[in-house]
Structure formats: structure tokens, C-alpha cells
Design a protein that fits this description.
The chain has about 750 residues and is α/β, with parallel strands linked by helices. The protein contains 27 helices and 23 strands. The chain is globular, with a radius of gyration of 29 Å. The structure holds adenosine-5'-triphosphate and magnesium ion. Magnesium ion (MG) binds next to α2. Its EC number is 5.6.2.4.
Length: about 750
Amino acid sequence: AVAPQLPYLSGLNPEQRAAVEATEGPVLVLAGAGTGKTRVLTTRIAHLIATGRAQPHQILAVTFTNKAAREMRERVTSVIGPVAEGMQWLGTFHSIGTKILRRHAELVGLRSDFTILGTDDQLRLMKQVIEAEGIDEKRWPARQLASLIDGWKNRGLGPNQIPAGEAGAFASGRGGKLYTAYQDRLKTLNAVDFGDLLLECLRLWREHPDILEQYQNRFRYMLVDEYQDTNVAQYLWLRLLAQARKNLCCVGDDDQSIYGWRGAEVDNILRFEHDFSGAVVIRLERNYRSTAHILSAASVLISKNQSRLGKTLRTEDEPGEKVTITGAWDSEDEARLIGEEIEALHAKKHSLAEIAILVRISAQMREIEDRLVTLGVPYRVIGGPRFYERAEIRDALAYLRVVNQPADDLAFERIVNVPKRGLGDATIQVLHNHARAARVPLVEAARFIVETDELKPKPRSTLRDLLTSFGRWSKLSETMTQSEVAQTVLEESGYTDMWQKDKSADAAGRLENLKELVRSMEEFPDLQSFLEHVSLVMEANESDTTERVSLMTLHAAKGLEFDTVFLPGWEEGLFPNQRALDESGRAGLEEERRLAHVGLTRARRRAKIFFASNRRIHGLWNSTIPSRFVDDLPEADVEVVEAPANFSYGGTSRFDRMAPFSGSSYQTPGWQRAQAHRSTTDDGGYSARRSGDRRGPMMIEGELVAKSTGAASSFKAGGRVLHSKFGPGTIEAVDGNKLTVEFDKAGRKMVLDSFVDAMG
Ligand code: ATP
Ligand code: MG
């Protein structure tokens, strides 16, 4: 029955309204992007409270992020007033789990002030556990154990519940034992990791049914947003809580399941219908977010996936602007084009807060951030640190700061034992003592200390070696470009190697970021000016009220919406991401496609896809081809944008050789344009562009000759090469990947082979 005194219901369509009013029993809202699932949840909460079915503290509502929880609280408040502030149980699985666990900590062997370990501490602890077992941590790294244990925890499995075959996965069958030892250590430390926040709740409830019952009674109604991305532990947690009253309402979209790699299981959708018999399943089909072209493009794209439940979506919105597809020469050009479009939108009074740039991997952010800083466009990075604030970038910068300015104590301290080289706290203490007493920088103190017997022989010789290395690295800049210096320092210090040996999920991303850092340095005349640029970027921190462009990964964009969405990097290899394809095959491809679908469906009015014809992937320039996802888009809904008129590649249209939307085999005319491009910029014009070009792919008769930095050099003494900084020269000697070159103008220099092109 329609109660006219409930004005908030009038803003809903009949299906949404049914979902709000079906308050009793299990409800599953399975619906596409922008159909109002989150709005249904919000209204449902308001409705439960407004009709007196529940007090705010009797409602459990789970969102995917803390930000989403804040927004939901605000929206409920705007509908029913400040009474909504009483919602104590609105948050993420982690925040709610923490709260429950603190109340009963002693029952699971913790104190209520337990600490929640971050990833770093978690790894440190695992390492100790591994070593205590007498296992070689180099062979069986802590990160590998961490992902194994996280995987078990995601599936709700405690140390005693691991299926027979699986414990053998680590250190010849000792995975399970290490898991137990790790949990014991956590308890001793009065600590938990993220996985425990739910797992310990499950144990608590299993072992203390009376407490479970308390919560089952308390939570009269339960609601879950982004249900498609829950993992098994979360599902079990929900199921236990909801078992008594069964008032559980989950909303989700199988086409937006993008956390499979983190243990999320779309199967939870099927499980729900199975475990909660009589569940009402409601489908919402009207999209309220996007204009027709955007919605149609996104729908056709996702229809190429085989594993999906399938759905129809419609909009009553106008066709609007077509989805644009813009080809750029390289990633820097791409960032420039995006910057121009943002400026144009801003000039037409579009709010920057309504613009988002969504990237596939975080390493893509660096060039875009730099461009935005150059243009003075305020931006924020959502869901992660800015590029230069990432741990691996800060480490690398610390190395470079010491090379540039040995007296930089903070930097020295940051990297003196990264990677671990046995210069731990004891050594640092000795250095500090002397530095303070003698009022000299740490490096200075170190130089003195290694001549004494203050340190044991091993750290002493290690420290001496490190100081020698720093001395050598400081001199490199006399003969090398700053990028070459950086690359050499990161390699010789063992820093790159540390991440290469690392088996954790994020190691590859960190290596990509490091390569991106080295590459970004090419655009600066010297190390000093590069470091100054970095400190400027780090400072560009506008006040919180400034309207800003949002920059984030596609993963972080879930649930959000913006008038204009820029989608750079739609190239094979990057997106779909090669690693996802290699590791998970077709399932990986389909998850990538869902990610593309999430990206497109964030846009209300404008979706702008970009790809670059040249991009560095894993440090190598590649001539790239547009993503197969570009092919997936229906011609009627897209517009292929020409490059700006003042930016032609020798008169060749960038799409001349590309037959758009005609299957997946088209190739950009890379080599032709590479030639044309070179000839048009050989006037030594735009230096950043030139520097991008210099490490560009070397094209011989249309074939890409990729050059690897680490591999044995293909260069021979006597060969002619071209170096960006020093010009042409003749190779005198080859030593691994280092070349001694007699440059025609600059004289004899030592350079890295990856920084020169072979000539004729
Ligand atoms: P996603 O799957 O991306 O999370 P969603 O299904 O949660 O999307 P919402 O974010 O709830 O969708 O809604 C999308 C947009 O449509 C919001 O701006 C919302 O305010 C609007 N909207 C939803 N339902 C209606 C409606 N009945 N009338 C008008 N606008 C609506
Ligand atoms: Mg939503």
C-alpha cells in the first residue's frame, strides 16, 4: 500500500519501490550499473527507521569503502533527519568486524585494545615465523606465505580447516604449520591482520552461540552493497548473522565483479538464492545515470562476456554525446590531450569535481599527475597515494637524494637498510651517536665509523661498500643522463632486485612504478631539477574545499559517478592487462572486460576513451594496438576523434591504416608514423617530446626491435649509435649493458645500451 506520508518513496520507480518495501525476508537486487541499487539501499534504511520497523542501531549496513559508508549516512540523514546518526553498524566488513571483535576480544584470546597489523608488519611477522621454523626465507619468501594465508582467510578457513592437498603449497608441506605458528604469534602480540577481523568473529560465534544469538537479535535488518565482490568469509559471516531473522537484503551486479583476484566470488550470488530459500529476486532495468550512447556502448561491450547472468538495461535519457575514442602518439601525448580537454571543459564552466580519470594500473598516473600539475589543474588521487608518495617511489627518491646531496639524513636513513643488508637498528644507533656528537651528517659519521672498530666486521664492510657505491653513483652524473644514473643506482643497490624476487601480488606494480619513475626523469636536464620538480608536485596540495579532478584506478571507481570520465590506456597488454590474461586466461579476460564496463558506466554525460600508439610496458617501448575492448564497442555509439589539427604526424591521419571496428586484427601504422614523427620533430623543438621519442622503439623495415636493459648487449665495438644527450658516436667497448662510446662532439662517455639507438 502506498503511504502518501512517505515522500522519499515517490522518488522511486515501481521495481525500486518493491525492493524498498519488501522489508521482511531475504531480498536480492540483481541489477546493472546506475539502476539505483545504492539508492534503494539508502531509501530502504530510511524506510525501516521511518516506519518504526527498526531503530537505527538495529540495522547492519555494509558498504565496500569507508567513503561509501559516509555518503550513505549523509543520504539517509538527508531523508529522515539526524536520527540516522544513530546508525552504529554502518560501515565496511572490516570496520564492523573490528567493532564486534573489540567487544569480545578476551573470548578469542585477545585484549580489547588489540592492534590491526598493516601489510608491512604482517610480512615482518611472517618472516620471523618462517625463520623460526628453520626455513630459508629467500627460497620461501614471506610474501608468498602471506598471499597463501590471506587466500585461506578469504575463504573462511582457519589453520585447522585447510583442505588436505593445499597445505603442501609452501615449504614442502609446512604451510599449515606456519599458518598456526603465525596465528600464535599474533595472539602473543595481541594483534590481528585484516583477514582475522572476520575470521575471529566466525570463531567467536561458533564457540559462543549465545553471543551469536545476541547479534542475530540485535540486527533486525541487514543490507549489503556491492554484493558481487564479497568473498566466502564475508558470505559466511553474513549468513550466520542473518540465519535467525533472514532479513538480509543484498544488492549487486555480476557484471561489476572485479575483485576475483582478491578472493571475491560471484558465486555468492548463486549461493544466496540457494541458502536463503524463498529469496525475492528483484531486477532493476532502468538506468538513471548515463545517457543512451554511453549505456548502449557499455551494454554491448559486456555482452561479449560468456560468464554472466545476463540482463537488459534501458534508459529514458537522451542519446547525448557519443563515446569518444582518441588515439595519441604516446602516453605523454595522451596525458596532454586529456589535459587540454579538461581545460576546455573547465573553461565552459564544467566543475572539476565532476571529472574523473580512471586508469588500469597506478603507474599510468605519473604522467597524468605531472601534466595536471603543469597545467595547474587541482586533482586528488582516490584510494591510494599519489604517485610520488608510493613507498617504492619514496625509496627510489631517497637513493637519488643521497646521490644528489649526501648530507640528506632522512633519505640516507630510509634506504641504508633497504633492501635488507644487515645494517639494522644497532648500526643506525652507532651512526646516530657519532653524528650527534660530532655534529655531522649521517653519511659523514658513517665514513668515520667504518675506519673504526665500532661496528662488527660484517656490517662494517657492508657499510663501507655502500659508501663506496654512493661515491661512485655521485660521479655517474658526469657521464650519464639522470635516468641512466637512476637506473644504475636502483640496479646496483639491489633495490630493483628486491622487488623482482618478491612474489607478492603488488610487486609487479611496484616495478612498473619504478620504471615509470626512471622514464619520467628523462624530461629533466639534471637530477637536481628533477628532485625540485618532485617536491613541487608533492606540495601541490590544495585545500580540501578546492574543486578537483579525481584520479583513480578503475578498481577504486566502483559505485561512483561523474559527468565526464576519461579512460586512458585502452591498449592490448595494458587493458586487458597481460598479467590477468596470463594468470587467469578467459576468466581473467572477462574480469578485465567487467572492469572496462565499470569504467564506462561511471559516466553520466561523457565517456572519453584514449589509447596511445607507443607505450613503455615493463620498461620497453612497445608499438601498441588499441584494446580489443575498443573493438567491442558498437560503431553507432562511438565517435573516433581526430588528433588536433596542429598535431599531425607528417600529414598521416592516425587512423588511416586502422580500420576501426572491423575485427581485432588491425594494427596502427606504427613504423610509418614513427618515421614521420621523427622527421617532424627533428628541429629539436619540444624537449619533453624529443626525450620521449629517443627511447622509442627502433623500427627496421616495419619490425619492432625491442631492446632489453638487463640482457646481454647486442651492440658491438665499432658500431655507430645515437644518444639523446651526447649525439652520435662510435662504440669503443661493450661491458654487459654498459657501453663506452667515443661521441663525435661530447668525447668519451660510458652509457647504458638501452639509452642509445643503433645508427645505419
Ligand atoms: P552502481 O552499480 O554503479 O553502483 P547503482 O545501481 O548503485 O550503480 P545508484 O548509484 O544508486 O546506482 O544510482 C545511479 C544514479 O541514478 C544516481 O545518481 C541516483 O541518484 C540516480 N537514480 C536512481 N534511481 C533513481 C530514480 N528512481 N529517479 C531518479 N534518479 C535515480
Ligand atoms: Mg551502487
